[in-house]
Amino acid sequence: AQTVTQSQPEMSVQEAETVTLSCTYDTSESDYYLFWYKQPPSRQMILVIRQEAYKQQNATENRFSVNFQKAAKSFSLKISDSQLGDAAMYFCAYRSPYTGANSKLTFGKGITLSVRP
Amino acid sequence: EAQVTQNPRYLITVTGKKLTVTCSQNMNHEYMSWYRQDPGLGLRQIYYSMNVEVTDKGDVPEGYKVSRKEKRNFPLILESPSPNQTSLYFCASSTRTGASYEQYFGPGTRLTVT
Question: What pLDDT, on a 0 to 100 scale, did the predictor assign at position B53?
């Protein structure tokens, strides 16, 4: 079974600075999908960015980018020019393409990011 | 607007009193799923459904039931709730096509069982 590990429970960043959130995963599969979700105080789960394992190029979405290291099974999220609205809990998630009918996401425990003004 | 809705958003109940949390999506998605979120544990899958009348257990199904009589609806049923089912619940849906099968989440239901 796949596992996702987010070892840092909390991080803090100064507004306008850059922060990197770490995520590692364990799998024996060669193809899979990785995601970062943001959960603000409203509790809504918001997809931030996704990465297909077969793509070597790191995904980017505006101020958000990932550092995908397939051999190391590492998938970190970089937030540039941090804004107050980035304060939230962030979850790393894994999805296997080989689970048949079940498209389940396997989540890490999450990391709480605070942004200092 | 494409969305997943859940009701109620907040619920406080007592042990043993049956309850249902409804979930509905308007995107004609085949796949629907329920997760629960607990502090320090992330989100874990309870049940999922790949289409009408097709459901199966996820990782933590004990104490829950589901049904899928219509494509758009996927209610979560707690027949005899217990305090260890106090949690934040999310319904999610996705299409079966598309490379990444993005899952769309509902707004969450905060359940407290006393």
Answer: 93
